[in-house]
Amino acid sequence: MADGRVESAIANWASRLISNGIDYNDFVRTTSSIDRWDDWLDAWTATGDVHRRLAEQAVAEGHTRSAGEACLRAAVSYHFSKFVWVIDPDRNRSATEAAAGALYQAHDLLGTGVQRIEAAYDGGLAIGNLRLPAMDTPSVPLVVVIPGLDSTKEEFFAIESVFLSRGMATLSLDGPGQGEGGFHSPIRHDYEVAVTAALDELDGRAELDMSRVGAAGVSLGMYYAVRAAAFEPRLKAIAAVSGPYNMGEGWDSKPSLTREAFACYSRSVNDDEARERAKRLSLEGVAETVQQPCLIVTGARDRVIPWEDTKRAADAIARSEWVLYEDGTHVCNNIPFKYRPLIADWLRDRLG
Questions:
Q1: Cα Rg, the chain, nearest whole Å
Q2: Quick one: CA dihedral 218, 287, 311, 236, positive or negative?
Q3: What is the number of alpha carbons within 13 Å of residue 26 lying toward its C-beta?
């Protein structure tokens, strides 16, 4: 019988893995082989290695499209191998690097034209993947895609495509405590420093209309997006899904894997210190200052962030729109066909 942490990971995040690129058959095969949480990283790394070898074989045969698609599967397998798996920080980092490397290889093989963006801020480095829509338009709107606690830019290929197909550029961002950004800085409550640095880095690019910039945040990324909107006037609209009003409230009721991951990425020494640092991630007195239009979405079946907590943020923002999906789980990952077109269309309408 699988231990409680394996069961928790499957129960809380199965739809997340699948909606972000894990093949259902890979999910069933890989998770059914795991009895102990200690073995999670090894099992998913082995799955990633299978797709890496398929990519190498396809390259050798001159099938670059197939190779690129295999690299995408490898990237998300490596990414989810260390997803909330913080038993060994060195192995977590190695898996992060493997995921990033596989994704860049996929972009290269698929000819997406992705551009790596690095933007320094005090004590840290924001790292993002910039993609432009395949449209003959002189200047396009930009959506900054903001991850949550343990999502990273490697998880966003599918959701980027939803924005790109609607004529918007995307910048998927690793900020403090996230993916490659976490190599340089732990989680910070003032996430806007990373957004500001990234926008400064992009300023003046002819292909981007920097007067039409929005943000989309998922899970803890909702907090980051609202916080960024409060302090970064270049953001003209934000859409966010399933985030906390205060990360520290209800701490003991959060999944143990979430608490462990927050402790690791905030560089806390124990659970008590992590709780106190999480309490700093609060929208009290911040959400009320947001002037931009905001769309806040969540699911009534969310077992990670209760929907009532997400609604507190929506209620505090003057120009917010609130959507609750009765059938939605955390980040509505079980119904991506509902929430992703909704937030993409909403942002497209607001950004022109």
A1: 19
A2: negative
A3: 25
Which CATH code fits 114-352?
3.40.50.1820
CB 78 within 8 A of CB 51: no
Buried/exposed code over 76-108 (b: 16+ C-beta within 10 A; e: otherwise): bbbbbbbbbbbeeeebbebbbebbbbbbbbbbe
Domain 1-111 CATH (choose: 3.40.47.10, 3.90.1300.10, 1.20.1440.110, 3.30.1050.10)? 1.20.1440.110
Predicted local confidence at residue 262, as pLDDT: 97
Would you state the pLDDT for residue 253?
92
What are the percentages of helix, strand and coil residues in the chain, rounded to 5?
A: 50, 15, 30
Q: What is the mean pLDDT of each run of 10 residues along the chain (352 residues)?
A: 84 94 97 96 98 98 98 98 96 98 98 98 96 89 97 97 98 98 97 98 96 98 98 98 97 94 97 97 98 98 95 98 98 98 98 92
Distance between CA 249 and CA 270 in Å, rounded? Answer: 17
pTM given for the model: 0.96
Q: What CA–CA distance (Å, rounded) separates 69 from 58?
A: 10
**Closest CA relative to residue 282, chosen from 243, 315, 319, 255:** 243
Structure tokens that stand for 160 in this block: 């980027």
CA atoms within 13 A on the CB side of 294: 31
Give the three-state DSSP class for 270. coil
CA distance 121 to 181: 11
Give SS3 for 235: strand
Closest CA to 307 of 282, 336, 327, 280: 327
Token couple for 331: 């980040």
Q: Report yes or no: 167 and 133 within 8 Å, Cβ to Cβ.
A: yes
- State the pLDDT at residue 223: 98
What is the C-alpha separation between 5 and 157, in angstroms, rounded? 27
CATH 3.40.50.1820 domain span(s) along the chain: 114-352
To which residue do tokens 């270049």 refer? Answer: 234
